[in-house]
Amino acid sequence: MHGHRPHTPASERSRRWFMNKALLAGGVAAVATMTGCSNDSSDTASSSSAAQSGAPSGMPSGGPGGGGGGGMGPGVSQVKYKDLKGVTADGKVVDDLFTIHSTGVSTDGLVKAAQAFLDGLSAKERKSCTFDIDADEWTAWSNVDGYARKGVRMGDLTEKKRDLGYALLGVALSADGLTQTRNIMKLNQFLGDSNGGNQKTLTEGHYFFTFMGTPSTTKPWGFQYEGHHVAINYFVLGDQVVMTPTFMGSEPTTATYKGEKITLFRPETTAGLAMIRSLTKAQLAKAVSSQGNGNEDMKAGAGSDNLKLAYEGVRGSELTSAQREKLLDVARVYIGYINEGHAEVKMTEVEKHLDDTYFYWMGETKDTSAFYYRIHSPVVLIEYDAQAPLFYHEASSASPSAGASASASPSANGGGPPGGGMGMGGGTPSQEHIHTIIRTPNGGDYGVDLLKLHLDNDH
Q1: Most buried among 119, 186, 220, 349, using CB within 10 Å?
Q2: What is the number of other CB atoms lying within 10 angstroms of the CB of residue 172?
């Protein structure tokens, strides 16, 4: 009914046993490959890769690359650029949602920053990270830490070149967006240090830039910034910008790294709770799923570019003005990670379709609850998903900044698998492991519809 399978104690035990076995055999990247991305990545949100493969309900079925490091995720396969039609509610794209127009928000600084970064690279580095505007590289992103990525790796660049990369992100994103991205990278290093270090994929430097097209104030171009728990897709046409799909997540979400206390996803969490708590009993009956949230409820992760996802929940037209504002407050958190001017442009677009925007919830509503929620309209899809910690446990939360002394090992949980181990939290979702994504349905992701309009009308 709600497009996700029930999670039973038996299935969770099977899942934890399987993940512990995989972790012991293949390390962090192997488990992340099986669990780091959407588990509903086929054309319909209700399809299950585990069911298709004959695996028990709730058990990962493995993914491309044999279930080890390198694949996009469990049952996930890339949608080629030429086959993109976008996320839809019923398999049919809603036409005439997007137009080529002037936003009045200059992209001159963005173009200069992108060109400065590219100019600072060697010829070999530049060749490795540049692609055509309609390249399949757009859709070849993943949240998985061990995924085999293309492009230039930040950790392989000189400090001067890295600074140019961060300068580009600083222009493309808002101050909050840049802070969020950098803190996710820092906690990726923290996670690696907490698991003994020596994991190249779990470092601040294991993030990659790729560019599609050539930076221009008139012609289409874009870039992708990607690594574990971050995937920013940024399309530019004139002064129009599309920053979707953008995936952000972290495990843990709170830690002290090199003396800096970092807390992630509090705005996303508190805004969601404020929205659900504002609903009446009758509205809650529509908004809240009859099933509780499971461990991995995200539908629109990597590989889900042509996802069919029906509207669920309470509709914007059924909300009071105060509730509608709270719904917009939730959207503002995610949209607010793009630079301020273009965030305002996107919010205007979202408000235009507010009557047809749905809010959907799974789970409890306490301050510390692990829950899932979704905002879905013809022009925006937002998901928040609190998942079970895979590698990190609060019992081992001592800061690793002084020699990485924290250790998320089986002994930290009082024993080996099953039943947690390696900081896996006993299979219980927690606010210490959160995944989020924002998309533009109906062909908006990656600027696909804008590029088609540009090619049809200007060439």
Answers
A1: 220
A2: 26
